[in-house]
UniProtKB/TrEMBL annotation:
Alphabetical list of Pfam families matching this protein: Kelch_1
Protein name: F-box/kelch-repeat protein SKIP4
InterPro entries: Kelch-typ_b-propeller (IPR015915), Kelch_1 (IPR006652)
Keywords: Kelch repeat, Repeat
KW Mitochondrion (keyword) present: no
Domain of life (superkingdom): Eukaryota
Coiled-coil features, chain-numbered ranges: none
Entry annotated with the keyword Repeat: yes
Length: 232
């Protein structure tokens, strides 16, 4: 609750700072955001005031303005999102009992939301990134495996398995160029080139960043709630 209050206080200050620029910052949490075709999309989430969790706000820097829309296909419990093939894919939480994964896709060309095909959605069981038009997912349901979606055969295939010795799950993913950053508890991080990982047999060549050390010289085990890079 304290972190949530701090987040809202920060967003209120940001909105005050942006008021002179006629820039509206939607106050919300538990949402996702993506950049596509020079615009920023803030999707779903809960606001500090009464708001619809199935809303999508779009910022256009050319007009310096926000527009809003509501669609019942937007999942209320958003877990992750990526931009792939000019569309925004959004995944919600999955049930540990049924193992069912639910995902939707937004097509900006016609402004519609649709369900993602089951064969693709079923393997999206963790944080995801897109590199060179390929979707990669960090599957942490049984060990830590980097998976990728093969559109040509409509299947998920394993790229490499990662050791939990350098980073402790639950982990987050960030992609910069062709490099993948796997960030675990306490910000313990492993970095590797995804193309090299796909072509390596056996040992994965990577670099790592150790976990944070607290003021008491103890290793931090704090979870990383979210980690995402965005550019327009």
């Amino acid at each position: 609750m304290e972190l949530l209050e701090r987040y809202f206080n920060f967003m209120v200050q940001q909105q005050k700072l942006c008021a002179d620029l006629k820039f509206f910052v939607p106050l919300r949490c538990y949402f996702t955001y993506e950049a596509l075709d020079g615009k920023i999309y803030a999707i779903g989430g809960l606001g500090s005031k009464s708001s619809n969790p199935q809303s999508c706000d779009t910022y256009d820097p050319l007009t310096d303005s926000w527009s809003s829309s509501i669609d019942p296909n937007i999942p209320p419990d958003i877990e992750d999102s990526v931009v792939l093939d000019g569309k925004i894919y959004v995944r919600c939480g999955f049930s540990a009992v049924s193992s069912h994964v639910y995902a939707v896709v937004y097509d900006p060309s016609n402004g519609t939301w649709q369900h993602v095909d089951a064969d693709m959605a079923c393997g999206w069981r963790g944080p995801a990134v897109v590199i060179n038009g390929v979707l990669y997912v960090l599957d942490q349901t049984s060990g830590i495996r980097l998976m990728k979606w093969r559109e040509d055969i409509r299947e998920w295939v394993a790229v490499t398995r990662l050791s939990p010795l350098l980073m402790r799950p639950p982990c987050r993913l960030v992609a910069i160029g062709k490099k993948v950053f796997v960030i675990g508890k306490g910000l313990g991080t492993v970095v590797f080139d995804v193309e090299n990982a796909a072509n390596m047999d056996g040992v994965l060549v990577s670099s790592s960043v150790p976990r944070l050390i607290s003021d008491d010289d103890e290793i931090s085990w704090d979870n990383v709630i979210s980690c995402k890079s965005l550019a327009i």
